[in-house]
Design goal:
Elements: E1 2-3, E2 6-7, E3 10-11, E4 15-16, H1 25-44, H2 63-71, H3 91-103, H4 113-124, H5 129-137
Antiparallel strand pairs: 1-4, 2-3
Helix pairs in contact: 1-2, 3-4
Protein name: Transposase
GO molecular function: nucleic acid binding
Organism: Rotaria socialis
Length: 138
């Protein structure tokens, strides 16, 4: 699993979770929300002008995650308002497609998961910030 935050103000560090299992809620809470999302918000969005839009993975809407987001006053799309199978509604889905193209350009193939993780992190830093800003701000 690959996770990152995008906004009109920047891109977070990429986290690659090297497991074939679905992400557990405690891992999501600690590795993503506490270590990445909250510091990103603190750095780029102190004005409160943002909305966190998770995908529909069960860990993303676990009770502990929702409690933490509410505790930190992080506005987020509630599950009932988060449409499935509408990737065009979520800019991050376009970013994943662009990042995938960058990673696998010239028919590149990963020799192992560590190399893949390194390339994903490297290529994420090459994403065009102006394009991201335009995509998010509309």
């Amino acid at each position: 699993m690959v996770w990152m935050v995008i906004s009109s103000k920047g891109v977070s560090d990429v986290y690659v979770h090297k497991s074939k299992q679905a992400i557990r809620q405690d891992t999501y809470l600690n590795q993503f929300i506490n270590k990445r999302l909250l510091p990103f918000i603190e750095k780029y969005h102190q004005d409160g002008n943002y909305l966190f839009w998770p995908d529909l993975a069960s860990a993303h809407y676990s009770k502990s995650v929702q409690e933490r987001l509410n505790e930190k006053n992080v506005p987020f799309v509630i599950r009932e308002d988060n449409p499935s199978n509408v990737p065009q509604a979520r800019p991050i889905e376009t970013v994943w497609t662009l990042l995938e193209r960058k990673v696998y350009e010239n028919n590149w193939e990963a020799k192992d998961l560590d190399v893949l993780a390194q390339i994903i992190k490297k290529k994420s830093k090459e994403l065009d910030q102006k394009m991201l800003q335009d995509m998010i701000d509309g």
